[in-house]
Amino acid sequence: MDNIFKKAFEEVMEIEGGYVNHKDDPGGATNFGITEAVARRNGYEGDMRDLKLHQARDIYYYEFWLDQKYNKIKNRDVAIEMFDQAVNMGPGRANRNLQKSYNLLSDNQISVDGAIGPNTLKAVNSCNKPVGLFNLLNGYQIMHYINLAENSQKYRSFIRGWVNKRIEIIRK
Question: Would you say residue 171 lies in a domain?
Fold first, then answer.
């Protein structure tokens, strides 16, 4: 496992913590931010309370880091941000956020299809505005959280944590 993944995993673990089964979380019971559905898809059969940190790390590494190709994003901050968004909002939404962010910064548009393929990687890795890309990613993330909280009472209990723990704007 590469050093950027290790850093991304450490940062997400500081936010996600251990076992949670919040009544308003549509993901249901989670441990280390891993939903039961994701754990089962990756062969875990036990109670979610018993999921070990190394099992969560392996699931994140294979299903989120490698499968989503975040390991191929050259900018460390953008790669880590993508991982965090994928963990919290799902890879499809995170990937669309990246594609939309890139399109706002570039005259060369890429498809907003939620998949990180060769065109997205080439575009993102050649982006000459990485701080802007990172900041736009966070902008899309906060817009998503605001929309959830404004449109459903059950998400209001999460908005403070999302804003305080997950949103970071780089100033340079």
Answer: no
Q: Could you tell me if residue 172 is inside a domain?
A: no
Is residue 163 a contact partner of residue 145, using CB atoms and an 8 Å limit?
Answer: yes
Q: Which domain holds residue 99?
A: 3-166
Q: Is 120 exposed, middle or buried (0-12, 13-18, 19+ CB in 10 A)?
A: buried
pLDDT in tens, 59-114: 999 999 999 999 999 999 999 999 999 998 899 999 999 999 999 999 999 999 99
Please give the model's pTM, rounded to 2 decimal places.
0.89
Number of domain units in the chain: 1
The pair of three-digit structure tokens given for residue 102, joined into one six-digit string: 């890139």
C-beta contacts of 155-162 below 8 A and 24+ residues apart = 155/24, 157/22, 157/24, 158/24, 158/25, 162/88
For residue 20, what are the β-bridge partners?
30
Residue entry with tokens 């817009």: 143
66 occurs within a structural domain: yes
Report the alpha-carbon distance of residue 56 to residue 31 in Å, rounded. 8
